[in-house]
Specification:
Strand order of the largest sheet: 6-3-2-1-4-5-7
Distance between the termini: 10 Å
Largest sheet: 7 strands, mixed
Number of helices: 10
Strand content: 5-15%
Number of strands: 7
Radius of gyration: 18 Å
Length: about 250
């Protein structure tokens, strides 16, 4: 099995890709690159037994899409009172509510934060993946997953304070991860993961993708499955990171 983790950015310079090969009760990091374009991401999932995890929303909230469509066409809109309760369905997807319940904080909003620019690129990437023959499903029903590296680390019990902006914090995190997961062979890529936050998150994304491939996450409930197929669904690992090496 191979798991590909992508820390997606709006442009190539901020995008990183990690590849983990899982065999014989362990995993080896065989590839870690920054400055990755869409063509390289598509090429990375060629072949069988490969799963892809992307750190980016795979869709927008239904309510937001409906609101923008109605506003654009001049149709009658629900009365806007500007309050937080009115805005929330436009700002957060169903899966974002689950994320908040699990990790205690809201993720960035794909409809109101700059993350939306990255999601525009992701929409194009999904089209390219589908055209290449890779099965694209936004509800975590196949081999494509939306992952959340920071949230995954917190669920695994790691202290994520400041790791995105502090290389020393990433070094500590990587040492702790290596101690808890001695089956993980970083293959000489540890310096890059420490030096570059995008590369670090790509490695974590590849680990979270393994949880998705093993089914070690809570899938969307039946009553929200159709919504998740449009909005996307974040794969939040269940169980300890140590268990990822078991099949």
């Amino acid at each position: 099995m191979r798991t590909i983790g992508v820390d997606l950015a709006a442009g190539v310079p901020g995008t990183a890709l990690a590849e983990l090969v899982w065999a014989d009760g362990g995993a080896r990091l065989t590839r870690l690159e920054t400055g990755v374009d869409d063509a390289a991401i598509v090429a990375s999932v060629s072949g069988d037994a490969v799963w892809l995890g992307v750190d980016c929303p795979l869709g927008w909230p239904d309510a937001f899409v409906d609101f923008v469509r109605a506003h654009h066409s001049g149709s009658a809109l629900e009365l806007v009172d500007g309050g937080a309760d009115w805005r929330r369905p436009l700002v957060y997807r169903r899966t974002d509510h689950v994320v908040r319940e699990r990790i205690g904080r809201w993720p960035l909003s794909v409809s109101t934060d700059r993350l939306g620019v990255t999601a525009l690129r992701c929409a194009g990437l999904l089209r390219r993946l589908a055209e290449s023959g890779f099965p694209v499903d936004r509800a975590a029903e196949g081999r494509l997953f939306e992952v959340y590296p920071g949230g995954s680390l917190r669920l695994w019990g790691f202290d994520t304070t400041g790791y995105r902006v502090d290389a020393e914090r990433r070094a500590v995190l990587l040492d702790t991860l290596s101690a808890r997961a001695p089956w993980l062979d970083l293959g000489g890529f540890a310096p890059l993961a420490v030096a570059n936050a995008d590369a670090f998150d790509a490695v974590v994304a590849a680990l979270a993708t393994r949880a998705g491939a093993l089914g070690a996450f809570e899938p969307p409930a039946s009553e929200v499955l159709d919504i998740a197929r449009r909005e996307g669904w974040v794969v939040l690992p269940e169980g300890p990171v140590e268990a990822l090496a078991s099949s």
